Amino acid sequence: MSTTSTARFTDRTVLVTGGGSGLGRAIALAFAAEGAKVAVAGRTAHSLDETVGLIEAAGGRGLAVVADTTRPAEVEALVRRTVEAFGGLDVAVNNAGILRGVGPVAEVAHADWQELLETNVTGVWLAMKHEIAHMKAHGGGAIVNIASNLGAHRRIPNVVAYATSKAAVSALTRGAALDHIGDGVRINAVSPGASATSMSLRPGESEAQRADRMKAETPLGRVAQVAEVAAAVLYLASDAAGAVVGTDLVIDSGSAA
Predict the structure, then answer these.
(1) Long-range pairs for 68-76 at CB < 8 Å and ≥24 separation?
(2) Which of these is catalytic: 93, 94, 162, 177?
(3) Which domains are present in the chain?
(4) For the segment 150-174, what is each residue's pLDDT rounded down to a tens digit?
(5) Catalytic site residue 235?
(6) What is the pTM for the complete model shown?
(7) Exposure b/e, 105-115, CB count within 10 A at least 16 = b
(8) Which of the residues 25, 141, 195, 223 has the least number of beta carbons within 10 Å of its own beta carbon?
C-alpha cells in the first residue's frame, strides 16, 4: 500500500465504527489506501476480520474490535485498544447505524423507536464522548459522523423514525463542533442519500431494479458510489478541510437540492 507524499493520512490512526460492511468498509479501505492505520469496530467479528483482511492484503495495517457503540464500557475499551495498538487516535468516523421502524409514525413499534435512537444517536454520542476525551488530551483530531439526507435535509413518508434519528445526528454534530473546536477537535458530518449498499435496496429489489428506480427518483439519475461518499469523509478529515467546522455535507445525487 502506497504511503507516498500524496497519501494524506500516512502514520495517522483512524477509527471507523460500523466498519464491517457497506459504507463503513469503503471508508476504512479508503483511509488505509492513503496510509492510515485503521481500526474497525462493529458487532460482528467475521465481517470486521474481512475488512482487516482487505486492508492487510493491500499492504496496510488494520485492527478489528468487536464493540457495541450503545454500551459505554465497550466504547471506552474500543478507543483504548485502538490507542494501544496504534499509538494514538487522529481521526474517528462514527458510521454505525441501523434502519428500523419503517412505516407511518403512528405504527412504529416502541422497541424499534428505542433501538433506532439508542444506536443512531446515543451510539454516536458515546463514541464522540470517548474519542473527544482522547483527542483533547493529545493535541486534537478530526471526527466525521455519518448522518443522512433523510432528516435535517429531506423528509419522505414512512421513514420518520429513521429520519428523526439522523436529524439528531446532524444537530449533535453541529453542537459538538462548537463545544470542542477550542479543544482542537474538528467535527463535521456527511449525509449520504441512496448509495450503492444493501440499505438502499427495497425488499426483494435487485441492483438493476434500483438503478431503474434511481433514474426517476434522483436528479443525477443514479445512486452515489460508496467511493464517492468515502471521498467526502476523507476530505472532511484531512488537513485541507482545516477551516471546515460543524458542516453537514450532503452526498445524495441531488435529492435534497
Answers:
(1) 68/43, 69/17, 69/41, 69/94, 69/96, 69/119, 69/123, 69/124, 69/126, 69/127, 70/118, 70/119, 70/122, 70/123, 70/126, 72/126, 75/126, 75/127, 75/129, 75/130, 76/130
(2) 162
(3) 13-248 (3.40.50.720)
(4) 999 999 999 999 999 999 999 999 9
(5) no
(6) 0.94
(7) eeebeeebbeb
(8) 195
